[in-house]
Write a structure and sequence with these properties.
Layout: H1 3-10, H2 13-21, E1 27-28, H3 29-33, H4 40-52, E2 56-61, E3 64-69, H5 74-83, H6 89-107
Antiparallel strand pairs: 1-3, 2-3
Helix pairs in contact: 1-4, 2-6
Protein name: Metalloregulator ArsR/SmtB family transcription factor
InterPro entries: ArsR-like_HTH (IPR011991), HTH_ArsR_DNA-bd_dom (IPR001845), HTH_MetalResp_TranReg (IPR051081), WH-like_DNA-bd_sf (IPR036388), WH_DNA-bd_sf (IPR036390)
Domain HTH arsR-type: 1-89
């Protein structure tokens, strides 16, 4: 992970919002797209930049690609902590937590 890639990734508001949405639950590209008014190619570009910076990881499950935070790096943990206090990231983080909780209930 190069610091310049991380700072470039974090410089974008949509990418910071994506990170907040992924803070508690993994989401498919389609689930992320539902939360934004942008084209799918634009969303793909944002996700690629986040992956290249080492902030997000992807995993193919069946026909879908699931995205989640790459928590194995310190910057991911720092962003997760700061998002709770961010006026934009806080509500998105809460939505992500509610989604994760709903998924757990459905799985059991």
């Amino acid at each position: 992970m190069q610091e310049e890639n991380v700072f470039a990734a974090l410089a974008s508001t949509p990418r910071r919002k994506i990170l907040a949405y992924l803070s508690e639950a993994s989401l498919t590209a389609g689930e992320i797209a539902e939360r934004f008014e942008m084209t799918k190619p634009s969303l793909s570009k944002h996700l690629r930049i986040l992956e290249h910076a080492g902030l997000v990881k992807s995993e193919k499950r069946g026909q879908f690609v699931h995205y989640s935070l790459a928590d194995d790096n310190m910057l991911g943990k720092l962003h997760d902590f700061v998002a709770a206090f961010c006026p934009v990231g806080g509500p998105l983080k809460k939505e992500s937590a509610a989604l994760a909780k709903a998924r757990k209930r459905t799985a059991t």
